[in-house]
């Protein structure tokens, strides 16, 4: 069974595809109920960021192992304008787009690990992970 | 996928059947604002029971629906937000402040009946 999925993000309907793939792989990891919704919602937010700021990009979702634990990794990559001030972008309510400004900080709260790598003019990569049983 | 909108008495009910794209959500918003005028509705119910994700865009659109229909003279109530969805919304920092929510369709109808009773009397 494939343990990863790549979803090209071009249009808003790709956001739905990305979160459905995320839910599918999260189920494979062993996540249930609330965690599935949480993962799908976080994917929705980072995918939406791609559409809003970079117009297109890619979401890679992969089942990962670290020592004895299992989890799901989500990587959102784009070659958009990048984020000039990552620290500021992580603040609730801060937005340079038409959004509510909760996408990135919100997604961070939903996941266990969250990293943003961005260089202005080159694009943004967000890596986030959720581990099984970490929050239980 | 278009959301079916049913007229029931003074109310219109939008019953979401599957995951919605952003465009579907915007279409629903515009359709509801139109239908409130066409049917002279006093209340709107948006049933989100089947939605497994309500992200920032969905919440903002639902909020816009409630505010826009209010400007058209109708009350909106959101029904059927699932427990997992409610949890994710709170974690994400999304609020539906000032917008009526009810457990399910039945409670939503009861809320609107109550809410529109006085204005309905004034109509006679």
Task: Give me the secondary-structure topology.
The complex is a heterodimer of chains A (136) and B (124).
Chain A: E1 4-9, H1 12-29, H2 33-54, E2 57-66, E3 69-78, H3 86-89, H4 103-110, E4 113-119, E5 123-131
Antiparallel strand pairs in A: 1-2, 2-3, 3-5, 4-5
Chain B: E1 5-8, E2 11-15, H1 22-38, E3 43-47, H2 56-71, E4 75-79, H3 83-92, E5 100-102, H4 105-122
Parallel strand pairs in B: 2-3, 3-4, 4-5
Antiparallel strand pairs in B: 1-2
Helix pairs in contact in B: 1-2
Within the largest sheet of chain B, what's the order of strands?
Answer: 1-2-3-4-5
What is the H/E order of chain B? Answer: EEHEHEHEH
DSSP strand content of chain B: 15-25%
CATH class of chain A: Alpha Beta
Low-confidence segments of chain B: none
Largest sheet entry of chain A: 5 strands, antiparallel
Number of H- or I-type helical stretches of chain B: 4
- CATH topology (level 3) name of chain A: Heat Shock Protein 90
CATH architecture of chain B: 2-Layer Sandwich
Spell the H/E element sequence of chain A: EHHEEHHEE
Write down the domain tally of chain A.
1
Helix content of chain B: 40-55%
* Order of strands, widest sheet of chain A: 1-2-3-5-4
Outline of chain B, from the CA principal axes? globular
Corresponding CATH superfamily of chain A: Histidine kinase-like ATPase, C-terminal domain
CATH topology-level name of chain B: Transcription Regulator spoIIAA
Largest interface: A-B, 27 and 24 residues
Radius of gyration of chain B: 14 Å
Tell me the number of structural domains of chain B: 1
Helix percent of chain A reads 25-40%
């Amino acid at each position: 069974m494939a343990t990863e999925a790549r979803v090209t993000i071009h249009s808003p309907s790709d956001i739905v595809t990305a979160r459905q793939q995320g839910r599918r792989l999260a189920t494979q990891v062993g996540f249930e109920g609330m965690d599935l919704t949480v993962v799908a919602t976080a994917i929705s937010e980072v995918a939406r960021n791609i559409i809003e700021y970079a117009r297109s990009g890619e979401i890679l979702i992969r089942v990962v192992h670290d020592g004895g634990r299992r989890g799901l990794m989500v990587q959102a990559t784009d070659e958009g304008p990048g984020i000039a001030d990552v620290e500021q972008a992580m603040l609730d309510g801060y937005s340079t787009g038409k959004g509510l400004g909760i996408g990135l900080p919100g997604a961070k709260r939903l996941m266990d690990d969250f990293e943003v790598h961005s260089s202005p003019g080159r694009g943004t990569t967000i890596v986030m992970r959720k581990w099984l049983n970490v929050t239980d | 996928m278009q959301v079916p909108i049913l007229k029931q008495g003074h109310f219109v009910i939008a019953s979401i059947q599957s995951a919605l794209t952003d465009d579907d959500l915007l279409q629903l918003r515009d359709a509801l604002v139109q239908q409130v005028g066409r049917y002279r509705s006093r209340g709107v119910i948006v049933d989100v029971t089947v939605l497994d994700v309500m992200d920032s865009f969905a919440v903002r659109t639902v909020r816009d629906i409630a505010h826009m229909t209010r400007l058209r003279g109708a009350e909106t109530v959101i029904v059927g937000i699932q427990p997992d969805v409610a949890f994710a919304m709170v974690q994400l920092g999304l609020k539906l402040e000032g917008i009526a929510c009810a457990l399910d369709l039945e409670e939503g109808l009861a809320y609107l009946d109550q809410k529109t009773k006085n204005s309905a009397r004034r109509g006679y």
